[in-house]
Design brief:
The chain is an alpha+beta fold. The protein has eight helices and seven strands; from the N terminus they run ααααββββαβαβαβα. The strands form two sheets. It has a five-stranded mixed sheet with strand order 5-2-3-6-7, sandwiched between helices. It has a two-stranded antiparallel ribbon with strand order 1-4. Helix 2 packs across helix 4 and helix 5 runs antiparallel to helix 6. 26% of the residues are buried.
Length: 225
Amino acid sequence: MKIENTTNTNDELGENHVGTSSDTPMTADAFKLSDKEKIDIIKDDVRHIMETLGLDLTDDSLNGTPKRVAKMFVNEIFGGLNPEKKPTASVFDNKYKYGEMLVEKNITVYSTCEHHLLPIVGRAHIAYISNGTVVGLSKMNRIVDYFSKRPQVQERLTIQVVKELQKVLNTDDVACVIDAKHLCVNSRGIRDIESSTVTSEFGGQFQNKETKREFLDYIKLETKF
């Protein structure tokens, strides 16, 4: 009875896309195996799934799919699980004494819902107020990309981006807003193709009403070239 209740609870959490932690749940031995060993194991598991579904893996189009999926899981869409791939974010002195917020908007987000392993696609908008140091613009994109490349819930992704930039910049004054579509909602279940999900995390001065409003107004600006 206890196992059944736990299973029902897990199903309910997953169907409602509810996360349980601001840290990505990882086992203690997550990096015991090499990437090659993980690919070999996942390849066999994917092959088993496809064969169970009744697919003919002797077909030229399907024969290489298990290995392609395994390599994609380890090297690409879940590569952000590996701390060795975490981007190095060099900081520099704010020698030009820029004292206003810096906003980088429309950062592309490609992630994967941890409940159904379907894509999350959207945009992230980040801002910070310098505490004496600045970070290269591209590093902000890379931080979003790194934390996106793992099974995620959008709330956790938003928090992780803010926490990482707070650590890098040594300031609480960091904010992030993410607007994304979840294919687990758009392509299955309710199949609502129009809806998107917006999450936000405001640290330090961004919790002030005026500063928060200024940031939100900036990300509404239309950029044309």
